[in-house]
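Risk register update: the risk of archive-format incompatibility is retired. Evidence:
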Amino acid sequence: MNFNPFEGGSDHTPFLQNKIPGLLMWHFTDMFYHTDNDRLDKVSATTMQNIGVSALTAAYVLINADDNTALYTINEVRDAALKRLKTEFELSKGAIAARKAVNDEKHILETWGNYYVASIATIEALPLKSDKTKISAAINKATSLIEAETKKYLEDLK
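Archived output:
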């Protein structure tokens, strides 16, 4: 899915484009990022350790996921979505006041709403051993809330 126009993609993109699972473990850039000087001697051992721990933790959580993991993740993504949408709405109001195009600002809000709806839908793919009815219901409820907030903010942008 290509919902987020604010990110240019990275090494994981070709995998995702070919329906191969891919993961982006990212950190804030440094002065060497994507330059001719982006070489192994510039890599932070601490950052690599943090990325390794994050990747292993994510893998461990995913292979041991249960209903509680799924429900917790749904709530976390829902809360992040609502916070992001509110932030983007406030930023868009300021941008419109500074004479930015309303349609461009609405596109930003729609894009974030779509991004989070698509993200939350992936939680259903967790390999749970239980009846997924409860998880599907929680996803539907969270999705409805995200969509309603997105719609409300879009209507309030003028």
